Every structure is written in structure tokens, then in C-alpha cells.
Amino acid sequence: MSGRSTWTRSRSSVSVRGVSDGAREPDDTDEEPRGPRVTIVKGSPWTITGPRREKWSSDEFVAANAVDIRQVGDPVLHSPAHRPRLARGELESLIARLFASMVAARGIGIAAPQIGVPLRICIVDVDEAGIVAIEPEVEWVSEDLDETSEGCLSVRGLYGMLERPVAARLGAVDPAGKRFTIEGVELGAQCMLHETDHLEGTLYVDLLRSRVDDLFPVEPPGPGEEPRPVSGQHRQELEPSV
Ligand SMILES: [Zn+2]
User: Fold this and answer.
1) Residues 32-53, mean pLDDT to the nearest whole number
2) Ligand 1: distance of its center to the CA of 195 in Å?
3) Which of 195, 219, 225, 226 is catalytic?
4) Which pLDDT score is estimated for 226?
């Protein structure tokens, strides 16, 4: 697939880049250091970082809160989600389940429909941003596009080659109803767009030009290798799935 990417950096050497709820990305050895790919530009979103992240990533917490990720074909993934009208406590417990399920699946982003909850809530976790976005709306996307691999926790075992804007801006509210704005570049933008697509009932496979030419199986692990989850699964070796 080399030559198809418009990235100026050496992305073609990466077999699976994965979107937002996919795997964590591989360590690039030939690129300059990069800054965070998700940046808060206005307001102060509720984030799952610091001590909260530590607690919510613990085996005990994940075992108690993670649920199965719904897979392509499940109706909840293919219908627009609704505006959440939950009490604060219910909202926080839903966010805890969402985060724990993402951690269990080794994703870098997740949307509530993926755990069977048809509400407009997602987590953008590229570079461990841990941003909880309620009723997110895409406010702007760059004209520059990039074709990269994209995976999804709800489409196991496959990744697709898809063009996405290189940068995007998202407005959303936090659990207290306060507005904030974040911007993403590269995988950060990809994740934000992938997760908001989920809230419209759209999966990345729906956006491919061709499911024959642009969709690929994730290669099975070699001897001694860990299994490679597809799109949003491997935190270390692959880019995250969302
Ligand atoms: Zn996804």
C-alpha cells in the first residue's frame, strides 16, 4: 500500500494505523518528536487523567465495569444516537463503563453505542487525552486529507484504507453541561471524526470507496507474538482503534 498515502512521513511502513477506538500506535523510529495530537483550545473538558485514570485503568476497576463491545451488524451501531438526559451520577457511571470497556479492548477512543448505549457520548483517548465529549459536533475540518489505515473496536480483525482530514475541531459539552472545544491533528483528528461518526450510526467501513479493495484482514500474529487486534486494540504496537 505504499505510494497510496499522502503523508510526507513514513506511514507506509506501518501496516495498521487504526483509528480512534483502535489500537495504540507503533513506535515510530524515524520521525521527529511530535506534540500531543489532541489539544484543548477552549474551556476545560472533563478528562480521565491523573489519579482517576490510574484508578479506572486498574485490573479491578476494568473487571468490574467493562462490557462487551458491540460488533458491526448490531442495530445500535447503525442508528443515530440520542441526546443524553441522564442525572450526573448515571452519566458518570456510564462514562466509567465506557472507559473500562475501551481499556479492556485496548482502544484509543470509544463511543457509547459501542457498548450498546445509544447516547451521544464518546471518549477521545489519543495520546491518553482522556477527553469525555458529550454531544460532540465537528466544527471544522482541514482541506488537507490523508489516506491512512483505520480500525474499529466494533469491526474486529479488519482495517481499512480511508481518506480523512488531517486536522479537525470538535465542540462538545462536559458532564456539567459546560462547553469546550478541542482540536486534533493526524490520529487525533481521525479519532475525533471516527467517534462522532459512531454517534451518527456510521462506521468507517461505510465510508470506504470499496470494501473489496480498501478493507484488509489484520495479519495473524507470528510465533511468539501477541495477537494483533485490529482497529482499536493494540496500545503499543498498532495505532489505536476507536
Ligand atoms: Zn469505532
Assistant:
1) 92
2) 6
3) 195
4) 60
Ligand 1 mean position, distance from CA 235 (Å): 15
pTM score: 0.82
For range 197-201, the mean pLDDT: 98
Residue boundaries of the structural domains of the chain: 17-24+35-217
> Can you name the CATH fold of 17-24+35-217?
Peptide Deformylase (3.90.45)
pLDDT value, residue 32? 61
Mean pLDDT of the chain: 85
* pLDDT tops 70 at residue 236: no
Q: What is the DSSP string of the chain?
A: -TTS---SSSGGG-S----TTBPPPPPPSSS-----SEEEEES---B--HHHHHHHTSHHHHHHH--PPP-TT-GGGSS--B-----HHHHHHHHHHHHHHHHHTT-SEEEGGGGT--BSEEEE-GGG--EEEEEEEEEEE-S-EEEEEEEETTEEEEEEEEEEESEEEEEEE-TTS-EEEEEEETHHHHHHHHHHHHHTT--HHHH-S-TTTSEEEPPPP-TTPPP--STTT-SSSSPBB-
Quote the ligand 1 centre to 46 CA distance (angstroms).
21
**d(CA 164, ligand 1 centre) in Å:** 14
Q: Given this model, what pLDDT does residue 219 score?
A: 80
Q: Look up 195 and say whether it is catalytic.
A: yes
Task: Kindly list the protein residues that place their beta carbon closer than 5 angstroms to ligand 1, a single-atom ion.
Answer: 21, 152, 242
Rounded distance from Cα 240 to ligand 1 centre (Å) = 10
CA distance 22 to 240: 3
